[in-house]
Amino acid sequence: MSSTRQLVTYGVPAAVVAVFAVFVFNEGAQFWTLTTLFPNEPAHLYDRSGLPQLLAEHLVLVGVSSVAAAVVGIAIGVFVTRPPGRDFLSVAQDLSSLAQTFPPVAVLALAVPALGFGFKPTVAALFIYSILPVLNNTISGMEGIPRHLTDASRGIGMTRLQILFLSEFPLAARVIAAGVRTSVIINVGTATVGAVIGAGGLGVVIIGGLVRDNVAFVFSGAMTAALLALIIDWLFSRLETLFFSPRARQEGP
Amino acid sequence: MIEFQGVTKSFGTVEALRGVSFVVPSGQVTVLIGPSGCGKTTSLRMINRMVEPTDGDVLVDGRKVGSFEPEDLRRGIGYVIQSVGLFPHMSVRDNIGIVPRLLKWDRSRRYKRADELLELVGLDPAAYREKHPHELSGGEAQRIGVARALAADPPILLMDEPFGAVDPLNREVLQKEFVALQRKLRKTVVFVTHDLDEAIRLGDEIILMRDGEIVQQGTPERILAAPENEFVRDFVGNDRALKRLACFSVDNHMRDAETVAESDIETIGNGSAGGNGHAGGSGIYWVHDSNRRLIGLVNTASLEQGASAQRHMTRVRAKDVSVSPVSDLREALSRLLGQGMPAVPVLDEEEQVLGEVCLPDIEALNQTGFER
After folding, report:
1. Per-window interface: B 319-348 vs A, CB < 8 A
2. With an 8 Å Cβ cutoff, are B88 and A252 in contact?
3. Which of A4, B42, B119, B210 has the fewest Cβ atoms surrounding its Cβ within 10 A?
């Protein structure tokens, strides 16, 4: 690997992580950055709760909703590509794309009467919102497996479960993993909306800034969320190269 | 032994098989052949229950296949398909070991077996076991497909156009390897193809099908010699006499040849060379060097009394004029015509003359057994 490529693969992400960590966990550096960028704001550090606390809340929101979306999305995707569930294939695809056309704020508004304020409706909204990429990719991953491979799997005496776990999942894993990655990244951004109904997370600073007309607050929340998305995306790409090494890449007959 | 008893298969309103009955003898290669849609692949896939019959029974060793769990049945039957179907995410070794894995063999036994099978299909285990399918050529992939089918040593092998997607040159190599392998293993093989030459080359028995029915069943030689009706005649083609020659192997139809060492070559004219003083039926003396390797020939037909045999000797390159004992008579005839000689020598691997094949013998063979 050339040194420039190595710099791009490891150096840039390392720099992003460093900036992120220093900004979030070192109040002095945070204060310096914000006063330098926004000298005219009356306040620069959000006073109700610190960024580490909000970051933790944010991660819990994203984590719970993404894991749920991944599990449910993959399960539905597998079900509708089996013979017994095939009738539901188009319904599932329609419903999940419909769910994504709803703006997240609308989902929140609809969820509040049913689930109250705070954590639960936000997780529900994120969950519904992020199921689509997982489901879609699971379906296309499963449908993309060449027929002759399924035929061979059956012909050499695999049971249905063995076909699923020894043959289909490993073959579709790349595509499914890409779906999960997309859904998590979407969630990192969308979770900020949860602050509107008191779910906490990085959205709290952004909303607080908007309410008090303070750009420094908006900036610190937005930038933390953006860097977080970048870092998580990079982590996923590392995981993918780790699990799907070039040798095991799906090609050829 | 595999037996079909009045097997019918309908896909909706289409009848793929119409009451087919036949017996596949054990330890032999039975080829199902016919035009597309004749029901040959459907029949094959009924043996391992990939397709269930609408009516009738398929029996393996006297037991109805329907009485087995499909998975148990399939693990006991090797399955090779045209597209090979190797798993791209598994190494060659894991691909070969997949059926043993389903049968819960432990890892070291699976690995040992995979190496044995790589040897068997002519691939170096050290070079191939860690490779992945995308690193293989078509021919290599197909060899591994065969190795995978043989992994658990099943008595039955189902092969659905296994060499169909391989280029002609490699196909011939694979066919020859398969014949050699089958001589060793003596599996009960059901082989589907639409290539008549392949059927003749590989089959002990051929079942010719059309529109879901059997048109003729018999040895390749029998089908070519005595086509039962117009369809079979058309299917085997106008060159069936030529194709039939591929059914006969050279070692069964060669005769003794006269040989002479180069140092003794002048004895030919004296009538004291060789055993009886006459060349074998062809009138040709095959001349060898001190290592008994073929170097040339003397045709007594063009040798006048008292002339020097040395000066009449035609030097030849053994490889260009000869056939091997495992060649078929079609190849021998081609050599005969190509060289314009009355006989071709049959050589072993050391290029020593084992015998010769003469044109009149081939002609005589082709006249017997033919019915119009």
Report:
1. none
2. yes
3. A4
For residue A6 the two structure tokens come to 């190595």
Q: Chain B: nearest CA to A248, how far in angstroms?
A: 5
CB pairs under 8 A between A and B: 79
Determine, for residues A149 and B81 on separate chains, whether the beta-carbon distance falls below 8 Å: no
ipTM above 0.85, yes or no: no
Contact A152 B99 (CB under 8 A): no
Q: For A107-135, what is each residue's pLDDT tens digit?
A: 788 888 888 888 888 898 889 888 889 99
Tell me which DSSP letter residue A95 carries.
H
User: How many residues can be counted in chain B?
Assistant: 372
**Among residues of chain B, what percentage have pLDDT more than 90?**
53
The residue type of A177 is A
Per-residue confidence (pLDDT) for residue B276, from 0 to 100? 43
Looking at the complex, does the CB of residue B144 fall below 8 Å from at least one CB of chain A?
A: no
- The residue in chain A having the minimum alpha-carbon distance to the alpha carbon of residue B149 is A156
Q: Say whether A253 and B133 touch across the interface (CB within 8 A).
A: yes
Residue A251 has pLDDT above 70, yes or no: no
What is residue A168's DSSP assignment? Answer: I
Which residues of chain B have a CB within 8 Å of the CB of A159? 71
Q: The pTM is what?
A: 0.77
pLDDT digits (tens, 9 = 90+) for B199-239: 998 999 999 999 999 999 999 988 988 888 899 988 888 88
In three-state secondary structure terms, A116 is coil
Q: For B69, name the nearest residue in chain A, comparing CA atoms only.
A: A157
Contacts of B98 in chain A (CB under 8 A): 156, 166
Q: Which tens digit of pLDDT belongs to each residue from A24-68? A: 888 888 888 888 888 888 877 877 778 889 999 999 999 999 999
Q: In chain B, what residues touch A148 (CB-CB under 8 Å)?
A: 81, 83-85
3-state secondary structure of A107: helix
- A139-143: average pLDDT: 92
Closest Cα of chain A to B58: distance in Å?
A: 17
A8 pLDDT more than 90:
no
Return d(Cα B110, Cα B203) in angstroms, integer: 31
The distance of A161 to chain B (nearest Cα, Å) reads 12
Q: Residue B134: its chain A contacts at CB < 8 A?
A: 249, 251-253
- From A47's Cα to the closest Cα of chain B, the distance in A is 53
Give the 3-state DSSP-derived string for chain B, with helices as H, strands as E and coil as C: CEEEEEEEEEECCEEEEEEEEEEECCCCEEEEECCCCCCHHHHHHHHCCCCCCCEEEEEECCEEHHHCCHHHHHHCEEEEECCCCCCCCCCHHHHHCHHHHHCCCCHHHHHHHHHHHHHHCCCCHHHHCCCCHHHCCHHHHHHHHHHHHHCCCCCEEEEECCCCCCCHHHHHHHHHHHHHHHHHHCCEEEEEECCHHHHHHHCCEEEEEECCEEEEEECHHHHHHCCCCHHHHHHHCCCHHHHHHHHCEHHHHCECCEEEEHHHHHHCCCCCCCCCCCCCCCCEEEEECCCCCEEEEEEHHHCCCCCCHHHHCEECCHHHHCECCCCEHHHHHHHHHHHCCCEEEEECCCCCEEEEEEHHHHHHHHHCCCCC
Q: A168-186 pLDDT, tens per residue?
A: 999 999 999 999 999 999 9
- Tens of pLDDT, residue by residue over B91-150, are 999 999 999 999 999 999 999 999 999 999 999 999 999 999 999 998 999 999 999 999
